[in-house]
Design a protein that fits this description.
It is built from 8 helices and 5 strands, in the order ααβαβαβαβαβαα. It has a 5-stranded parallel beta sheet with strand order 3-2-1-4-5.
Length: 180
């Protein structure tokens, strides 16, 4: 079973996010610019992109003036994000390879729903985030796009607005805002 999971992890980005079927676009740059402005994130702050995949959003944050780190179970970002500091880790099994209170901002887009135990991810984010830091967790809106959830067989834990708020609150995050 473990060998099968490792094989899935190694091939996930290359199959699901193959650049010929899902080309790199300007959307990640636009979204990261929007998030930086919306949350008033200063240039030079350290940001961790959890589940960075190919590094599309990590590249966007770096291009928008942040000091970018990425962590993923694959090494795909090393091929697509040469300016980022990329780390490979199985977070559910071994946690994240960073010191406590290391990052100013942690970003995660469409990742938490892939975890068998999403509480591990949130606890690790809390541990690695500086006091007063910002976490941005984005998930697909399953209420409106339930088909997307079932099209990807690696989805494990769907999140709705209430459940996302609850997991953050249970892990002692403050000033939580969950919105569409």
């Amino acid at each position: 079973m473990q060998d099968n999971k490792d094989s899935l992890n190694k091939n996930y980005i290359d199959v699901i996010y193959d650049v010929s079927s899902k080309p790199i676009t300007d959307y990640p740059h636009k979204l990261t610019k929007h998030l930086k402005e919306r949350f008033d994130i200063d240039d030079g702050l350290s940001i961790l992109d959890v589940g960075c995949g190919r590094g599309d959003f990590l590249n966007g944050f770096i291009d928008n003036g942040l000091n970018g780190y990425g962590v993923d179970f694959t090494d795909a970002a090393e091929r697509h994000c040469p300016k980022g500091k990329i780390f490979q880790a199985d977070i559910e099994k071994n946690g994240m390879p960073f010191d406590n209170n290391y990052f100013d901002v942690i970003f995660s887009k469409s990742v938490i729903e892939h975890f068998y135990d999403p509480d591990i991810l949130i606890k690790e984010c809390k541990r690695c985030l500086k006091p007063g830091g910002l976490i941005i967790v984005m998930v697909p809106s399953w209420e409106h796009n339930f088909r997307i959830y079932f099209e990807d067989f690696t989805h494990r834990s769907p999140f709705m607005m209430t459940s996302l708020n609850d997991i953050l609150e249970m892990n002692n995050f403050s000033e939580i805002k969950v919105e569409f």
